[in-house]
Amino acid sequence: MTSIRLENVTKIFGKTVAVDHVNLHIREGEFFTIIGPSGCGKTTTLRIIAGFEVPEEGHVYFDDKDVTFVKPYHRNTAMVFQNYALWPHMTVYENIAYGLRLRKVPEEEIRRKIQYYLKLVGMEGLEYRYPLQLSGGQQQRVALIRALVVEPSVLLLDEPLSNLDAKLRLEMREEIRGLQKRLNITTVYVTHDQVEALSMSDRIAVMNKGRIQQVGTPDELYFKPKNLFVASFLGRSNILEGRVTGSTPPYTTVEVPELGTVLRVYTGDKQFAGKVHVVIRPENLEYSELPAGENVLSGIVESVMFLGDKVETRVKIGETSLIAYLPNKVNPREGEPINLHIDPDRIALLAG
Fold first, then answer.
1. In whole angstroms, what is the distance from residue 263 CA to residue 231 CA?
2. Which H or E run contains 334?
């Protein structure tokens, strides 16, 4: 297994700073995801790790070895691209064997490895088909096997599921995650899909405009965002302006003019004063039968959207509207009054 470290890495294209003084530490055997909007620098960061791009500043380390200027084919990495990059004139077997033959692996060993990996992903008997004879999911599996079969110390994946339909994306998420855990390969995954990032990753780095905004586990990023960008980018949030009116550790009271009320927020040992932003996830707003009480909000249902296992409900409260994900059994109806409760532990505060 290999750890990866980026120290003060910067990459510039013309007048555009694609990667801006990035520092990252990716642990051995970790499934690490880089997520962010288009153009944020996540793919460029991945290409720097692969060796396809050389930074203007900073260094890249594999374990304690500086590989900043080491050629890609000397880094023992393998990359799965967004468009799969399979040779259309080669069979599945030949596509997978290509990298092994470059490494002078004996044909008998190549045959054994290919059969092992094809069985691992349920594609036995398809080795002599061509890419155009395969479904999108099968092509993705071939691209993944081709990367894994050379036994890389680092696996790099650049939005590999973006061309698949919703059902296949779900299947491939589970398959990639399962393979990575069984093989215990240090993996760096780039995506703009929040569900992929949250469901597959050990840790996630959120990027914006070439800079790392926050690094943490999925639940840390989701429930404890460090800034407004992370709070608004990762999942849906109700973000309101507030003002701290008091503190009795571990709780802080915040006046929220838009809601016309004061909220009690669990803040632990953190201290807040003055203006703050209040972040409330839609799933943390619960239906309440009580019309009043601590952190109970009364409003009028503006709209209801059926989402299968829940209903997305927009509720007019004070001068604003909040989005709440409520169970179907609540059966909210447009124009009717409703009371919502938010647990103090389920509210995030951001300074300023």
1. 19
2. none
Q: Could you give the domains of the chain?
A: 4-230 (3.40.50.300), 237-351 (2.40.50.100)
How far apart CA 10 and CA 19 sit, in angstroms, is 5
Calpha distance 276→259 (Å, rounded): 14
Sheet holding 77-80, edge to edge: 77-80, 154-158, 186-191, 31-35, 203-208, 211-216
Residue 258: how many other CB atoms lie within 10 Å: 16
Distance of alpha carbon 99 from alpha carbon 152, whole angstroms: 11
**Residues 120-146: tens digit of each pLDDT:** 888 888 999 999 999 888 888 898 889
Instruction: Pull the structure tokens for residue 324.
Output: 């709440």
Q: What is the pLDDT of residue 178?
A: 86
Alpha-carbon torsion (126, 132, 135, 141), positive or negative: positive
Averaged confidence pLDDT in the chain: 92
Residue 326 confidence (pLDDT) above 90? yes
In this prediction the pTM is 0.88
Of 38, 29, 19, 30, nearest in space to 193 by CA? 38
Q: CA-CA distance, 71 to 332, in Å (whole number)?
A: 60
pLDDT over 80 at 164, yes or no: no
